[in-house]
Amino acid sequence: MLIVRRVYEDDLNALFELIQRSEYGLTTLKISKDALAARIEKSVFAFQQKNSKPDGLPYVFVMEDLSKGTIVGTCSIYSKVGGFEPLYNYQIKQSRHASDDLKLEKNIDVLHLHEVHDGPTEIGSLFLSPDYWGSGHGRLLSLSRFLFMADFENRFENEVIAEMRGVVNEQGKSPLWAALGAHFFQIDFPKAETMSSKSKKIIADLMPKHPIYIPLLPEDAQTVIGKVHNNTRPALAVLKKEGFEFRDMVDIFDGGPTVHSELNNIRTIRESRSGTVKTIKPASRSGANGKASPQESEVDSQSSSPLELLSNCQLDYRCCMGEICWSGTDAEIDEISALRLNLTVGDAVRSVATR
């Protein structure tokens, strides 16, 4: 029985224990308990604001297994990046080199340090306990953020990005870092990852400002630029199906790709619908109590209601898979979902098919 909900301050210990299992390359999760407590405090404040605009505050969500009372996943939305601490990426551009005498023309890929102060909204910090991999749980966790964004669009920028984890091995070795960043920082990748999560000033102080010609890097470093970690491929596939695309921006440390989408072009936001709970009925299928795959969407033989992703349209945000049937703007939902989402007749609800 899984739900995604906003984080509370008393989730600190359980959430910190969970992110200790995260792998190298998940920079925003490689933080101390005090730093996590500060992030949760900012998130609680963000959710409490009745009216807000993109201001850099984080919105932190957790996935809870209600049958066990344990937190098994987390994800976040950073309403705006940049500002006091800029967003740094490498932008891949082509440099043209030609010789009339040799009748030679060649375009060479070059890394340019890119600094953004007035930045977009960023989704990130997604981690699911390996015990819950499969059955579409990661997809539920990822898409849940978009239903929240659909109801509170004014809190976010029109452009949304996601920085995907690049190629890093189990020992924390990054080919791109070894070939580039390590020469300037003189520390290993895990330490640089931790330090950069605390302050971006070290990037401004130490990272080379001049363009980097990619063919001059070692071959193993060249091949990982724009590539994702094997365990990140499913997350990238979900975002691509949602409309996110690669626009030649990569992480300066591990070379992982940054993908972009306009807020209203995100499929879950674009195709979702909202209305009012008109009827609450008994649950008629196993998916409504969390035993079936969240990806299941066909109509059950005992019900005309497909399983969809449902949210409660509230700042005290809750989201789950459940049964819903629409008649105009009136919705009929199952009683299990109503309990999970704290919904009663007359409350607002939003849903979308997960595809």
Helix and strand pattern: EHHEEEEEHEHHHHEHHEEHEEEEHE
Name given to the CATH architecture of the largest domain: 3-Layer(aba) Sandwich
Uncertain residue segments = 286-303
CATH top level assignment of the largest domain: Alpha Beta
Q: Summarize the amount of helix as a percent range.
A: 25-40%
Radius of gyration: 22 Å
Strand order of the largest sheet: 11-14-13-12-15
Number of structural units classed as domains: 2
- What proportion strand? 25-35%
Please state the structural category. alpha+beta
Count of DSSP helices?
11
Task: Summarize, please.
With 355 residues, the chain is α+β, with helices and mostly antiparallel strands. The chain is 26% helix and 33% strand. The protein is built from 11 helices and 15 strands.
